[in-house]
Automatic annotation (TrEMBL):
Similarity section: Belongs to the nitroreductase family.
All copies of domain Nitroreductase, residue ranges: 16-159
One Pfam family linked to the record: Nitroreductase
Coiled coil, from the record: none
Parts of the chain that traverse the membrane: none
Keyword DNA repair tagged: no
UniProt xrefs under Gene3D superfamilies: NADH Oxidase
Molecular function per GO: oxidoreductase activity
Official protein name in the record: Nitroreductase
Organism: Sphingobium fluviale
Keywords tagged on the record: Oxidoreductase
Length: 193
């Protein structure tokens, strides 16, 4: 539970979910892991295109070091304790009515899948932390990224840990963040002059 307040009534889990960096380094149960990814599979997408792909490494497996090494050092310092690292990749080409064409919604749709994953994880007592602080070329190499696909982001997934394990700088930031007011993001008809 957080003490964040919404300006209008929303689902409580929207306020309770946040992105901690303190992970307990225990392994994740396979069934639990796949439940989180199953939620992402059911995200909405334009034309039901489902452009998302999830490439993962579990703590200690053959791919773990390459995935961790693709993160910037700042993110490596805390993500090293996650149970899983997941790269979200999008298919930038869609096929509609037998014709292949560029997708204009691949990143947008991957964002919906990420949100579904984050909320499912939260509902199961897990934590997630999305990040774009990574070496995108190293990440693409680590997953053998095919042509026509785009590396979108990385996600650390696991169990809540003790904030005492974090550096002083990170420990100070280990609190749910606020959001700007809705009126700062919502405009009727056009942007204000």
């Amino acid at each position: 539970m957080t003490d964040r307040k919404a300006g209008h009534p929303i689902l409580p889990m929207m306020l309770d979910r946040w992105s901690p960096r303190a992970f307990d380094p225990r392994p994740i149960d396979e069934e639990v892991f796949f439940s989180v990814l199953e939620a992402a599979r059911w995200a909405p997408s334009s034309f039901n295109y489902q452009p998302w792909r999830f490439v993962y490494a579990l703590r200690g497996d053959a791919h773990w070091e390459a995935f961790l090494g693709a993160l910037i050092p700042f993110n490596q310092s805390w993500a090293c304790n996650a149970s899983a690292l997941i790269f979200i990749v999008s298919d930038t080409i869609m096929e509609a009515y037998g014709e292949k064409k560029p997708s204009h919604s691949h990143s947008f749709d991957c964002g919906a899948a990420w949100m579904a994953m984050a909320l499912q994880a939260h509902s199961m007592g897990l934590i997630t932390h999305g990040m774009t602080g990574l070496d995108f070329e190293a990440a693409a190499k680590a997953v053998n990224l095919p042509e026509g696909f785009r590396m979108e982001a990385a996600i650390a997934l696991g169990y809540p840990g003790d904030a005492a394990q974090l550096s002083d700088e990170l420990r100070e930031r280990e609190v749910p963040s606020g959001r700007r007011l809705l009126t700062d993001s919502l405009f009727a008809g056009e942007f204000p002059s």
